[in-house]
Amino acid sequence: AQSVTQLGSHVSVSEGALVLLRCNYSSSVPPYLFWYVQYPNQGLQLLLKYTTGATLVKGINGFEAEFKKSETSFHLTKPSAHMSDAAEYFCAVEGSGGYQKVTFGTGTKLQVIP
Amino acid sequence: NAGVMQNPRHLVRRRGQEARLRCSPMKGHSHVYWYRQLPEEGLKFMVYLQKENIIDESGMPKERFSAEFPKEGPSILRIQQVVRGDSAAYFCASSPRTGDSGYTFGSGTRLTVV
Predict the structure, then answer these.
(1) Tens of pLDDT along B94-108?
(2) I need a surface site. Which of A111, B13, B25, B79 has the fewest CB within 10 A?
(3) Residues on chain A touching B102 (C-beta within 8 angstroms)
(4) What is the dihedral of CA B87, B92, A97, A3, to 10 degrees?
(5) Cβ distance B7 to B106 under 8 Å?
(6) Nearest to B59 by CA among B48, B74, B70
(7) Is the peptide bond prior to B8 cis by the omega test (within 30 degrees of 0)?
(8) Given CB atoms, is B106 within the 8 Å cutoff of chain A?
(9) What φ, ψ does residue A46 adopt, rounded to 5°?
(10) A61-94, pLDDT tens digit by residue?
(11) Chain A CA closest to residue B92
């Protein structure tokens, strides 16, 4: 069994400020972890993923996330927010080792204030 | 290289009618997943299919909903005798394998039941 908790359904940051979107997971097996972004009226687009190896993963559009096993977290960060980053972000977890259903969090809507 | 194609983008049905949602996976992807998205609820897994096989339908409502992925042609999500509560965005995703690859999502079908 696995689950994802995204803290904060809405986050507002000023343009140029740090973006931090929080994600905690639970999984009974070593997890694969993903962040997706969804723009209005579109599908989800993969931002980055952690599978094995380096715990700090870099994705598209300057985003990165760090897998912290001891904290069961996979928070998404970007040093400087841009107006185009305004969207909804979803964290997802999948158990490793054969087929495991991907479970998505409820999403965090990021607002960027000019 | 077309991505995941879903049609129609918008579908309006009267209560009691049937809704058929189509999904053509990305070229080279043999795994198809359907998710339903309701406002403030994130994505809910419905069903996972490979060609001619339903692998996991644990998220499908027991009645009125069915899915298929025939040998030839797109995957179909079928909802019979639609009710207002079926109104949602339905997303299809595909992947080349299970595990660490992440999903490629279509743009979704927005079903409105009137």
Answers:
(1) 998 777 778 899 999
(2) A111
(3) 34, 46, 49
(4) -30
(5) no
(6) B48
(7) yes
(8) yes
(9) -70, 125
(10) 999 999 999 999 999 999 999 999 999 999 999 8
(11) A43
